[in-house]
């Protein structure tokens, strides 16, 4: 099992939080691949933790549908679920288009400045070969939009789908052009600044096409990682 301990335990971090953080990162970065068996005892040994916090972290990841626990048959990394990702995209597009109506009417100079700052950071991250930091800044851009419109808990609800988008992205990193995504963000912000909702919506739809993977291509390329069609 290629399990990577990316970072040491942080001060003030509980054993469960640490196990959760490391396991989740392994799953999102595909060090632990979909369908792979998880042995609680091995994880405990590697992280130098007792089994209880590891079990609790696994239960949390199960609730996020990133792992599956089968009584008697053991635990494994969840297979990718194309239907779940499609539904996440549907929710995201529906809600984010409505959000832009609000953003175009009521954005303040401070909120615009926060988005500008995020775009500068994205530009910096886009130059790095490891796109993970760029994707985090991308997610942050959208979170700022929701928060600025007073809809931060709506973003939390959509956040359920983000790790599932990330796993698909990691399968086909070469499909992504960070400059293209950055350009989408700039167009969206320019349209918000101009109060031009129609143009902002157009660029958001384009952006979701750019950011979401082609499910058919992924399933053809990596059939063993996906839930087979019923
Ligand atoms: Zn984005």
Descriptive labels:
230 residues, mainly alpha, Arc Repressor Mutant, subunit A, Four Helix Bundle (Hemerythrin (Met), subunit A), 3-stranded antiparallel β-sheet, 11 helices, 3 strands, globular, binds zinc ion
Folded structure, characterized:
The protein is 66% helix and 4% strand. It is globular, with a radius of gyration of 19 Å. Strand 2 and strand 3 form a beta hairpin. The chain has two domains: 15-77, Orthogonal Bundle (Arc Repressor Mutant, subunit A); 82-220, GntR ligand-binding domain-like (Four Helix Bundle (Hemerythrin (Met), subunit A)). The protein contains eleven helices and three strands, in the order αβααββαααααααα. Zinc ion binds at residues 138, 141-142, 181, 185, 207, 211.
List the helices and strands and how they pair.
Elements: H1 15-28, E1 37-38, H2 40-47, H3 51-63, E2 67-70, E3 74-77, H4 82-106, H5 109-126, H6 132-148, H7 152-159, H8 162-171, H9 178-194, H10 197-211, H11 215-221
Antiparallel strand pairs: 1-3, 2-3
Helix pairs in contact: 1-3, 4-9, 4-10, 5-6, 5-9, 6-7, 9-10
This protein binds zinc ion (ZN).
Give a brief description.
With 230 residues, the protein is mainly α.
Between the first and last Cα atoms, what is the distance in angstroms?
29 Å
Shape: globular
In terms of DSSP E residues, the strand content is: under 5%
Top-tier CATH class of the largest domain: Mainly Alpha
């Amino acid at each position: 099992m290629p399990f990577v301990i990316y970072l040491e335990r942080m001060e003030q971090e509980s054993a469960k939080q640490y196990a959760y953080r490391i396991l989740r990162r392994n799953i999102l970065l595909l060090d632990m691949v979909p369908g792979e068996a998880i042995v609680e005892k091995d994880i405990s040994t590697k992280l130098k933790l007792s089994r209880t916090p590891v079990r609790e972290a696994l239960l949390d990841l199960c609730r996020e549908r990133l792992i599956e626990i089968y009584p008697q048959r053991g635990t494994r990394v969840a297979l990718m679920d194309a239907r779940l990702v499609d539904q996440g995209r549907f929710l995201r597009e529906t809600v984010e288009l409505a959000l832009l109506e609000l953003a175009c009417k009521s954005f303040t100079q401070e909120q615009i400045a926060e988005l500008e700052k995020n775009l500068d950071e994205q530009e910096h991250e886009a130059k790095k070969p490891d796109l993970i930091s760029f994707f985090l800044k991308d997610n942050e851009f959208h979170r700022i939009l929701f928060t600025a419109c007073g809809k931060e808990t709506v973003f939390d609800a959509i956040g359920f789908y983000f790790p599932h988008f990330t796993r698909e992205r990691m399968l086909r990193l070469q499909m992504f052009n960070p400059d293209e995504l950055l350009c989408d963000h700039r167009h969206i912000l320019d349209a918000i600044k101009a109060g031009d909702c129609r143009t902002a919506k157009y660029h958001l739809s384009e952006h979701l096409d750019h950011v979401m993977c082609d499910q058919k291509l992924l399933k053809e390329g990596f059939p063993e990682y996906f839930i087979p069609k019923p």
